[in-house]
Amino acid sequence: MSLTAKDKDTVKGFWAKMSGKAEDIGTDALSRMLVVYPQTKTYFSHWKDLSPGSAPVKKHGKTVMNGVADAVSKIDDLTGGLLTLSELHAFTLRVDPANFKILAHNMLVVMAIMFPVDFTPEVHVAMDKFLGALARALSEKYR
Amino acid sequence: MVKFTEKERSTIRAIWEKVNIDEVGPDALARVLIVYPWTERYFGTFGDIFTASAVLNNDKVRAHGKVVLKALDEAVKNVDNIKKTYAYLSRLHYEVFHVDPDNFRLLADCITIAIACKVKSALDPQVQATWKKFLSAVVDAMNSQYY
């Protein structure tokens, strides 16, 4: 299920539309993940406030979306381009890779809410594939 | 068995009231076929469903999308008894249609996204959580007769 040239163009095109709202998207996606999938809160026991839109959620939403932006720029070689991030997630953060799918789903929900007209089924499949490829690149160093 | 609070029941009804079955049904099913193309295997009689534009212009997809969401209406109306309400549907999808039950989860995700497009910020995190709890119960019920 690798990204076709059309997928990459679609992702870049949609990213251009949403990049201005990247921080809001990150905050909202993370907020939803923590509320809708409470098991994900186990990774953030060191945060004072896990409620939607809180300061640590906002800050981390921005961090995550910076990573997504980086991935868009390295879309032709996600595995190579995200090696450092993969090592971080594998050896330091040790996030169960099943959670990448969960966060991806919540990002898609936020995209649908914020861009209801632009988030067509074609954009939906391209973004789902891209986030899946991103997750695979992040999992690269796990074992 | 899944128990819903009164608040959760009214949240589910409130969101459902905003859903136009004739719009959201076809959108959700189209997304399933486009985003997860292996699901095409279950719709051999629908004609051309092999490209996004074919799916979006297919009358049978549109009609079946409405059928699926009408069935979800039954779950909304019987929220405390979804398993029993869906026992027949589960058996049907297993014995007659031979549907891999993982696809119910995929359909649930697409229904959520289709609803998100329509109701936008009315689907706030707490509402999304309640809606997901409801759909999880539906997916469970659809799995229940697979043995």
TrEMBL record, chain A:
One of its GO terms (biological process) is hydrogen peroxide catabolic process. CDD domains: Hb-alpha-like (cd08927). Pfam families: Globin. Keywords: Heme, Iron, Metal-binding, Oxygen transport, Transport. GO terms for molecular function: haptoglobin binding; heme binding; metal ion binding; organic acid binding; oxygen binding; oxygen carrier activity; peroxidase activity. One of its GO terms (cellular component) is hemoglobin complex. Residues 2-143 form the Globin domain. Belongs to the globin family. This is Hemoglobin subunit alpha-1-like protein. It comes from Lates japonicus (Japanese lates). The lineage of its organism: Eukaryota, Metazoa, Chordata, Craniata, Vertebrata.
TrEMBL record, chain B:
Keywords: Heme, Iron, Metal-binding, Oxygen transport, Transport. It comes from the Eukaryota. One of its GO terms (cellular component) is haptoglobin-hemoglobin complex. GO terms for biological process: hydrogen peroxide catabolic process. The keyword Heme applies. CDD domains: Hb-beta-like. Pfam families: Globin. Residues 3-147 form the Globin domain. One of its GO terms (molecular function) is heme binding. Belongs to the globin family. This is Hemoglobin cathodic subunit beta-like protein.
